[in-house]
Specification:
InterPro entries: ATP_PFK, ATP_PFK_prok-type, Phosphofructokinase_CS, Phosphofructokinase_dom, Phosphofructokinase_III, PKF_sf. With 346 residues, this protein is of the alpha/beta class. The protein is built from ten helices and 15 strands. The chain folds into two domains: 180 residues, Rossmann fold, CATH 3.40.50.450; 140 residues, 3-Layer(aba) Sandwich (Rossmann fold), CATH 3.40.50.460. It is elongated and about 70 Å long.
């Protein structure tokens, strides 16, 4: 079989580990893996392809980014996109396609199977850990580690200067990164998109800490969390009115606005750190390398078994698969973990 492998959407630590594992598994059984460059654009444009032989996938396990590059190309939104995909399948046919990406990529993958009948398999990736149907996505652990390291470093500055430190992390409409890095970094408050925490609650937490003689506080806020005041409707803060390639609004800026409010209401000097894309780049952690490798092997096995229209998933620490049609919406945080974190607030 000739099997296309692509990475779509944003980059994520561990992509190369999946490519390596899937390619090597396929080659071990005599199949031919092909890299589809620039996401699903490589499926529509046959000239955007590369052979994934032993040399191509050697030494890439630890590398960040993706050797096949990525893009947000959506054949269902591009002019003549579907027609170009079908034409490419006729002129340069693939026996199967492995699509590695987040929830929107899996949505595209599902439609390619349902509407066009293409033999596809999905692999969930995103630092946000918000893909429905899997316990964890690769890239999440690395992002949490980057955020935790930053919080650790900010602790010393906060203590030295008696400051309130606000750390804004990524995650879009999911609070997984904020929740896990906040717990691991010993945060005194965590704001997530799934539940509104008012400015008044944070003020009370900070003042309670200072009354106990703790003259600094660390607040971790997800970029998609809403700014909430008692008696008012919560508002999501946008970085700009422009949308990205998927039509999603650009989030960001809640840290700065929240910092102004906390400093004004408490009188304590407040500083803001926005981690941004540093959470998505660089070397994957050992945990992400292992998870990505397991996903890659499973995806290759699914292709060889003809299990199309499904996505590899981690459930109770076992790699299984679920129908792509079940991958719908955004997976919320575990609220029990958030309640456990509140033990340390104030």
């Amino acid at each position: 079989m000739r099997v296309g492998i692509l990475t779509a959407g944003g980059d994520c630590p561990g992509l190369n580990a999946v490519i390596r594992a899937a390619a090597r598994r396929l080659m071990s059984e005599g199949h031919e893996p092909v890299g589809l460059l620039r996401g699903y654009r490589g499926l529509a444009e046959p000239e955007l392809r590369m052979e994934l032989d032993d040399r191509a996938v050697s030494g890439i396990l630890h590398l960040g980014g993706t050797i096949v590059s990525t893009s947000s190309f959506d054949p269902f939104m591009e002019p003549q996109g579907v027609e170009r995909v079908l034409a490419a399948q006729q002129s340069h046919p693939l026996d199967a396609i492995i699509g590695i990406g987040g929830e929107h990529t899996q949505w595209i993958t599902a439609r390619l199977h349902e509407q066009l009948g293409l033999p596809v398999v999905g692999v969930p990736k995103t630092i946000d850990n918000d893909v429905v149907g899997t316990d964890y996505t690769f890239g999440f652990d690395t992002a949490v580690q980057v955020a935790t390291d930053a919080i650790d470093r900010l602790h010393t500055t906060a203590q030295s200067h008696d400051r309130v430190m606000i750390v804004e992390v990524m995650g879009r409409n999911s609070g997984w990164i904020a929740l896990y890095s906040g717990i691991a970094g010993g945060a005194d408050g965590i704001l997530v998109p799934e539940i509104d925490t008012t400015v008044e609650e944070l003020v009370a937490t900070i003042e309670r800490r200072h009354n106990k003689g703790k003259n600094f506080s660390i607040i971790v806020v997800a970029e998609g969390a809403k700014l909430a005041f008692e008696g008012q409707e919560a508002e999501q803060i946008l970085a700009s009115e422009e949308t990205d390639e998927y039509g999603y609004v650009r989030l960001g800026g809640i840290g700065a606005i929240l910092g102004q409010e906390l400093e004004k209401r408490t009188g304590f000097e407040t500083r803001i750190t926005v981690l941004g894309h540093v959470q998505r780049g660089g070397t994957p952690t050992a945990t992400d390398r292992v998870l990505a490798t397991r996903y890659g092997i499973k995806a290759a096995d699914m292709v060889m078994a003809g299990e199309f229209g499904r996505m590899a998933a981690l459930v109770d620490n076992k790699i299984t698969s679920i129908p792509l049609t079940d991958v719908d919406g955004v997976k919320p945080i575990d609220f029990e973990i958030l309640e456990e974190a509140k033990v340390f607030f104030g």
